[in-house]
Amino acid sequence: MSARILSGRTVANALVDELRAEVERLPVAPRLVFVRASDDPASASYVRSKARLASKAGVRNETRHLPESVRQEELIAVVEELNADDDVDGILVQLPLHAHLDPEPVLTAVLPAKDVDGLHPVNVGRLWTDRPGPVPATPAGLLRICDHYEVPLEGKEVVIVGRSALVGKPAAALFLRRHATVTVAHSRTRDLKAHLRRADLIVAAAGRPGMIGPDAVAPGAVVLDVGQAPVDGVLRGDVDPAVADVAAALTPTPGGTGPMTVAMVVANTVAAARARRGDGGGPAR
Amino acid sequence: MSARILSGRTVANALVDELRAEVERLPVAPRLVFVRASDDPASASYVRSKARLASKAGVRNETRHLPESVRQEELIAVVEELNADDDVDGILVQLPLHAHLDPEPVLTAVLPAKDVDGLHPVNVGRLWTDRPGPVPATPAGLLRICDHYEVPLEGKEVVIVGRSALVGKPAAALFLRRHATVTVAHSRTRDLKAHLRRADLIVAAAGRPGMIGPDAVAPGAVVLDVGQAPVDGVLRGDVDPAVADVAAALTPTPGGTGPMTVAMVVANTVAAARARRGDGGGPAR
């Protein structure tokens, strides 16, 4: 066990302290509304942890829990009411929704300026064209971890495993912006191990527990593990813990990239409030 | 000289024939308006070649040439007038603009549904989130060349040199969608030659004439050359012509990716007309 542990929890706590100080200087505390149209216990617990961190940062927050009887139009009406409410800065529609609901029109109904997830197509377009706007929380958290631990990125070989809209693709945009050479690998990649072994930094976001073993990582590489899946009741990442024997630095699971995702949602809310309420602050980049 | 020549001109002509047949079946011919606020001769000639191909496809087209005295608000007013005109299907603001004009607000003023360049942030977001919408013309043309010559992409190693909003980044989105493993390299890339030598397909979009020589290309690779710069009055690509001795297939300069870009603008116009005028056709993907 030699790798430095990149504690997302530590970085998230530092960020929340910063955000609280920032919020205290604002004339009005930002307000974040979670919309939960699901009875999924994992999603409920995820909203609770976001709400807890929002409160710690001084961000007002509340959850609208919609029963299984909710119709698509009613759910969209709730989002539109929140869009129109000038005292709401951030709206987070927690997925998954009840099975009969279509998430796509619900997510695009959120006003881009209040989209603290950064997943609205308008915000994705802003991300890829280097315009200001909220950045998807998980990849934004990865950069924050790199910056906290002073991991250099310029000219580095970054290999991202997974091409999801939530992680892999926006992470590619962010690491390119930091002048890394970026490879996006995925389930159809021919020789994943060859890519991983030449990487200075690996982002593992495949959702396949333990798929990256120590033989696939170059000595001295930095490994950020986004994969999170329960295995026999224990949360496991995509990265085999034995990678710690080879890598220079590694995020743990749990306590790695997960807490940072939550903290970045709160950071996006504070940035959205500053941008909307016009106190001169711009949205987070 | 052994590489197969991937003639963009041939593919563009075939596409224009298809588009003309498609336009003939429409109740109203699509209409494309070029906005040219520049006296730059290269941009004038570029608009002329797009107009010529549009006419060949049966697409009505006209050019609004605005003098150097035009003010930013006047230019935006022209765009807004075209947005509002129900008989206009496509708007193309040709860059560069007169030096005193800011292109950014002009390009975002174009209605996304009429943005035949596919560069509006809303359309970039649609591209990266796999929603329907116009795709930037140059990378769309690259895929069309691959499909015409039956170049397989799934699981292949694609290395893109250049990370511009016009070519490199949208090309990454498109090749990922086709299940290639995609690397985006650029001026800060540490060992470009190592990346190029492992590539099954290279997209050269750096704008550095002749920068990719035969020693940087694996035998059997496919090379798509987007770079176009005049050298001693002759248009040169990023790829040294001697690469033809090594590569399996190569786009020439001129007559390669350039004509395809022009043709894809016309294709985006026809798709925009079909989507807007509601005859059941969707936008091009």
Distinctive features:
3-stranded parallel β-sheet, 38% helix, homodimer, alpha/beta, 285 residues, disordered C terminus, globular, 6-stranded parallel β-sheet, Rossmann fold, 11 strands, 2 domains
Instruction: Identify the CATH architecture of the largest domain in chain A.
Output: 3-Layer(aba) Sandwich
Question: Could you state the CATH homologous superfamily of the largest domain in chain A?
Answer: NAD(P)-binding Rossmann-like Domain
What structural category characterises the helix and strand content of chain A?
alpha/beta
Give the overall silhouette of chain A: globular
Proportion of β residues of chain A?
Answer: 15-25%
Task: From the 3D structure, determine the CATH topology of the largest domain in chain A.
Answer: Rossmann fold
Report low-confidence residues of chain A grouped into runs of 5 or more: 280-285
